[in-house]
Design a protein that fits this description.
267 residues; alpha/beta; Purple Acid Phosphatase, chain A, domain 2; 11 helices
Length: 267
């Protein structure tokens, strides 16, 4: 089994300790492998933060959902909502027939109906998962980080009187559907670099967009690494593609990560 481990030193901070995994997309075998590689971190008291998009694309969504349900019983695991959870919920617990049809079409158009078929046909498991989705938070904040599937909207920070007011200006789509999060952050960074550095109190950890699409220096799946730019860290390693990777970010006094190529498992 091959895996990569890199270290990025972040000086001058005593960082909280987390394992962060995002965009699993039904890659159950790879997910279990990553968890096994993180066993020493769990023993050392690290928390696991899961940033959403647990289903779709891979052919083991049912197995992945069972594991997510199991992990939801643990106090050291934080399970956040992604846009795939939103699609599934609106397809099977809609407010209207129109909403159900719209989101089921979204699943089919993404060529993910078959990978989700085992899950959606198991009504008991599906309903357990939909119940869990109802309880999933959109973001998690500690004293150093804010975790959210698709980040936040930095453009609203300058006009906010406090961080709490800043969050109140967001709706659900900012946290789970924001395709422009990284682009908007970089635009705000280059326009208001010193202002952000001095005033924004957190580092944002997000997934949603594969990191090879964010950094212009990374343009192929073989170079899937975390995107790290001052106050933002992107951790979607591209598991939505069979050519991508699934990764775990390790947050401590150093930032490191473990990643595995999709399909490269010998459990």
């Amino acid at each position: 089994m091959r895996y990569l481990l890199y270290n990025f030193k972040k000086r001058g901070e005593d960082m909280s300790r987390y394992i962060v995994i995002s965009n699993i997309h039904g890659r159950y075998d790879e997910f279990i492998y990553l968890l096994s590689k993180c066993s020493d971190y769990f023993k050392a008291g690290y928390k696991l933060v899961l940033l959403g998009d647990y289903i779709g694309y891979g052919n083991q969504s049912k197995e992945t959902v069972k594991k997510i349900l199991e992990l939801s019983e643990r106090n050291d695991v934080i399970i956040l909502k992604g846009h795939w959870e939103d699609i599934l919920y609106r397809a099977y617990r809609p407010e209207s027939i129109h909403e159900a049809e719209k989101h089921k079409r979204m699943i089919i158009n993404k060529r993910n109906y078959l990978p989700l078929f085992d899950l959606t046909e198991d009504k008991t498991l599906l309903n357990e998962y939909l119940d869990l989705i109802e309880q999933m938070k959109l973001y998690y904040v500690d004293d150093k980080y804010i975790f959210a599937h698709s980040g936040i909207d930095f453009r609203m920070w300058k006009g906010s009187s406090s961080f709490n007011m800043f969050l109140l200006h967001h709706d659900e789509s900012h946290f789970i559907w924001n395709n422009s999060f990284y682009d908007n952050y970089l635009k705000e960074y280059f326009a208001n670099k010193e202002f952000l550095r001095k005033t924004f109190p957190y580092t944002v950890i997000a997934g949603h967009v594969p990191t090879y699409r964010i950094n212009p220096a990374i343009r192929n799946f073989r170079e899937s690494v975390p995107f790290i730019w001052e106050q933002v860290i992107g951790v979607d390693f591209g598991a939505s593609s069979r050519y991508g990777r699934l990764g775990a970010l390790i947050l401590r006094e150093e930032i490191s990560y473990i990643s595995i190529k999709i399909g490269d498992t010998t459990l």
